[in-house]
Automatic annotation (TrEMBL):
Its main location: membrane. One of its GO terms (molecular function) is zinc ion transmembrane transporter activity. This is Cobalt-zinc-cadmium efflux system protein. One of its GO terms (cellular component) is plasma membrane. Keywords: Ion transport, Membrane, Transmembrane, Transmembrane helix, Transport. Belongs to the cation diffusion facilitator (CDF) transporter (TC 2.A.4) family. SLC30A subfamily. Coiled coil: none annotated.
Length: 300
């Protein structure tokens, strides 16, 4: 199916400015929270700062990925462009989130038997400020999280960190109310578990894209049946559907036509069906005559 192979701006690229604003806010607060956490001796605050560090890395990688994804190919070898850079950035977010979770657990275990008394007043103030910044980030990234896996990775990071800020606030109030420093460690472990669960969920989505699975919500059998019902189409085989990056679904298929059928009309109808009904804008279709059995596709 002949068409222009140039691509428009990816879903992540459309939300780049949101990533930039969120990155700036989070980067500044990370430095403040880390220094305050070390001075106050709060594991919950340090763990939340660690998660903020993950936010900084994730958002920075997302911004770099959007730039790489839209960069023209000067080699002529990247025939699909560099859009997968956004997926790799999401994978980096997963690794960073898991790393932060492990660090928090290790630090919590090291404090068993000698809990450090944190400065609860400072914890409360920093936790509130962090929550405000994370809420701003959530509002900025929410609209793009449903369109881009890259933005979704950044969005989940900010959501998880908002929960971390709530945990810091809760830990500060509990320490003040009970006088027990153990609440600081308990909340830190809860933050670690929450971050790890989020990371595993995002990791599964990243692996699905890299494994070239059919996009979520897309049923290959349904697409196969719809193509076979087109006028002039007798059979469909070698159907492959995958996701190049968020918002860019790709498909290939061989269409076997009834004898004497106009192949141009079949291509036009099939392309319109994939684009309008299944949101597959980039499709490569091969038309074959059922009378001559002229399939020349790959042997797998």
């Amino acid at each position: 199916m002949s068409h222009d192979h140039s691509h428009g701006l990816s879903a992540t690229g459309r939300h780049r400015w949101r990533l930039m604003v969120t990155f700036g806010l989070v980067a500044v607060f990370f430095v403040v929270e880390l220094l305050t956490g070390l001075a106050a001796g709060s594991l919950a605050l340090i763990s939340d700062a660690g998660h903020m560090a993950a936010d900084v890395v994730t958002l920075g990688a997302a911004l770099v990925a959007t730039r790489i994804a839209t960069r023209p190919d000067s080699t002529g070898r990247r025939t699909f462009g560099s859009y997968r850079a956004e997926v790799f950035a999401s994978g980096l977010a997963v690794l960073v989130m898991l790393g932060v979770s492990v660090y928090i657990v290790v630090e919590a275990i090291s404090r068993i038997g000698s809990p450090t008394e944190p400065a609860s007043g400072v914890m409360l103030l920093v936790g509130i400020i962090g929550l405000v910044i994370n809420v701003i980030g959530i509002l900025l990234l929410r609209s793009g999280s449903g369109e881009s896996l890259n933005v979704k990775g950044a969005y989940l990071e900010v959501v998880a960190d908002a929960v971390g800020s709530i945990g810091v606030i809760a830990a500060a109030l509990l320490v003040q109310a009970t006088g027990s420093a153990w609440w600081d460690t308990v909340v830190a472990l809860a933050i670690a578990l929450f971050v790890a669960v989020r990371a595993v969920g995002l990791g599964r989505e990243v692996l699905a894209v890299l494994g070239q699975h059919a996009p979520a919500g897309t049923e290959p059998a349904e697409i196969l049946g719809a193509l076979e019902q087109l006028p002039g189409v007798n059979e469909v085989h070698d159907l492959h559907i995958w996701q190049l990056t968020s918002g860019m679904n790709v498909a290939t298929a061989h269409l076997v036509t009834i004898g004497g059928q106009d192949s141009t009309a079949v291509l036009r109808d099939a392309g319109a069906l994939l684009r309008d009904r299944f949101e597959i804008a980039h499709a490569t279709l091969q038309v074959e005559s059922g009378e001559t059995n002229d399939c020349t596709g790959a042997d797998w």
